Amino acid sequence: MTAVAHGHHDVLVVGGGAAGLMCALTAGQRGLRVAVVEHANRVGKKILMSGGGRCNFTNTGTSPANYLSANPHYCKSALARYTPWHFIEMVERHRIAWHEKELGQLFCDVSSKLIVKMLLDECDAAGVRIHTSCAIERVSLDDDGRYRLKTTHGDMSAPRLVVACGGLSIPSMGATGFGYELARRFGHEVLPTRAGLVPLTLSGKHLERMDGLSGVSLPVTAHSNGQSFTNAMLVTHRGISGPAILQISSYWQPGDALHLDLLPGEDALEWLQRQQAARPAAELQTVLSEAMPKRFAQRLCEVWLPGRASHRPMRQLDPAQLKAIAGIIGAWPLVASGTEGYRTAEVTLGGVDTDGLSSQTMESRRVPGLYFIGEVVDVTGWLGGYNFQWAWASGHAAGMAA
């Protein structure tokens, strides 16, 4: 990695994350002179930390339906032209062993460091220059159509500038709003941003009701705003987390209803009726304790279920009581107060408005030669490798066009 700028380039990429590196290597393979400018001391920091250090680098089930955007059609072109199988081909060419965990999620067998090394090796082979610990002091567009960057490594210029500096999630990794500032400076709308794929917090009596349950995990189906996800929920000291909660957090906002089905895959009333027929002498709390963690079942009975129903034998519960209990188990109401915010969020929702960008090339419709890719754009994927696939696809689209 070089620390010396050599002025003129064909393409300058601001940001050395997943999207920026993919764009750089793609453009470099076309014979263009490319430089990546990264303000942190190393590239690919979010790649390195993802998937518990194993990097959930794509999802084989990727489709436009797995993304949130004010324009749900925007991501279609890039995703269709660079699929998970294209990225898998590169991974296998570099002899990186991988496995499918669940729901199409692909992870490295060994370490996410191998993905970063692969991208850097591809960049190196394509002649891409990478500048780390390189702060940008000024960006300007000259009359001759060249973008000029004044950086701590010297001045650089190019007729094409790609903004790939991510969103606001995980500021401890170096996230800033620089990409949004650049977009606004060049006349682009930036849609309101908020934390996505993030734990939810509880407060007051809602948090008190969960006291002592931290660490308890169980499968649920989380419902909010017409969307639902089935996976694990984890009770934390401050609220709830786990894959199902992280997923629904991108659709939920403070004040919105949130319901959890505590028996995913089952009709709660039919399940209770079966239990009543099979085990008439067993108490409801005992039956529930065998279907979910005991501590959780006990608290559910203490706080949410009607009267003393949970300590009665199943045969004593009449149809109306069973229906009421089923209503709570199948749609357990949880009042969240907020989220853990950007500090722990995996992604940033919102960002550069896609109305101002070409879905084919990621180029600005307002300023020639300016491109926006990856998380800085108003395209946000679900949990499970979808955001990396958007990074690869949008980076490839810009790299082919720049």
Automatic annotation (TrEMBL):
Transmembrane segments: none annotated. Residues 194-347 form the RsdA/BaiN/AoA(So)-like insert domain. InterPro entries: BaiN-like, BaiN-like_dom_sf, FAD/NAD-bd_sf, RsdA/BaiN/AoA(So)-like_dom, RsdA/BaiN/AoA(So)_Rossmann. Keywords: FAD, Flavoprotein. The keyword Flavoprotein applies. Pfam families: HI0933_like (PF03486), HI0933_like_1st (PF22780). Its cofactor is FAD. Residues 9-400 form the RsdA/BaiN/AoA(So)-like Rossmann fold-like domain. PANTHER family: OS12G0638800 PROTEIN. This is NAD(P)/FAD-dependent oxidoreductase. It comes from Marilutibacter chinensis.
